[in-house]
């Protein structure tokens, strides 16, 4: 596959509404998308989320029910569930420090940096910390959407679901995780997706950009 310009990928992808249930995304393409998620930048490199990759049809049916019956969840072959840490903890941050030591050695500034981060994050309430972690998951979602397009895989970013129900279905609470956003993967059904022929709706550059020179 030759590399496509980013602009083409962004125009090719769309929030797919109808996927073809007869087509499954090959594992190597799923792996490429997962790797892009793993490589996403996060604040202070904490990567404060996990990814649950659901193929099980029964579980996907339950998730679809918690998402107002959105059929992409069951018509696609995979659902990526971005699940953020429910809070920052000493243990979680220490694991990040260990990972840094492993990769780069025990640099003197490392401990001071993460000690400072702990003194900022740990006194905050869990909801504030969860919201911060969830924002990091959204960065990975954005990269995943582009990575899927690069793999010529269709996807739908999804916030339209009940997170508490999905947390229960996947047993996330006991793992200290909360579902943030879903991303079904599959292949568009070109004959049945009403959104496919429609033009993209985007604000003009002037509307969203203020240049301060
Ligand atoms: C965070 C987020 C949540 C979304 N939730 C849903 C959803 O639950 N169901 C859905 O069909 N589309 C959902 N969308 C798709 C948006 O409506 C869509 O991305 C937007 O209208 C732009 O269209 P495009 O992605 O087709 O270019 C969501 C998009 C984002 C980024």
Automatic annotation (TrEMBL):
| Cofactor requirements of the protein | FMN
- This protein's source sits in the domain of life called Bacteria
Keywords on this record?
Flavoprotein, FMN, NADP, Oxidoreductase
InterPro entries in UniProt: NfsB-like, Nitroreductase, Nitroreductase-like
What sequence ranges are listed for the domain Nitroreductase?
11-187
Q: Which PANTHER family match?
A: NAD(P)H NITROREDUCTASE YDGI-RELATED, NITROREDUCTASE
Q: Which family does it belong to?
A: Belongs to the nitroreductase family.
- What protein does this entry describe? NAD(P)H-dependent oxidoreductase
């Amino acid at each position: 596959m030759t590399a496509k310009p980013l602009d083409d990928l962004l125009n090719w992808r769309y929030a797919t509404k109808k996927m073809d249930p007869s087509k499954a995304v090959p594992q190597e393409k799923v792996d490429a998308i997962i790797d892009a998620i793993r490589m996403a930048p996060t604040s202070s490199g904490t990567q404060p989320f996990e990814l649950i990759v659901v193929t099980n049809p029964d579980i996907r049916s339950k998730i679809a029910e918690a998402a107002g019956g959105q059929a992409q969840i069951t018509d696609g072959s995979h659902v990526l569930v971005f699940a953020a840490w429910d809070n920052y903890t000493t243990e979680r941050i220490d694991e990040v420090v260990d990972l840094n030591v492993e990769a780069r050695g025990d640099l003197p500034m490392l401990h001071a940096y993460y000690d400072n981060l702990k003194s900022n994050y740990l006194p905050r309430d869990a909801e504030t910390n969860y919201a911060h972690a969830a924002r990091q998951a959204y960065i990975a979602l954005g990269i995943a959407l582009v990575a899927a397009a690069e793999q010529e895989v269709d996807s739908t970013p999804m916030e339209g679901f009940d997170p508490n129900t999905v947390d229960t279905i996947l047993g996330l609470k006991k793992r200290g995780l909360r579902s943030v956003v879903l991303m079904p993967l599959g292949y568009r059904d070109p004959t049945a997706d009403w959104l496919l022929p429609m033009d993209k709706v985007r604000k003009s550059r002037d509307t969203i950009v203020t240049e301060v020179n």
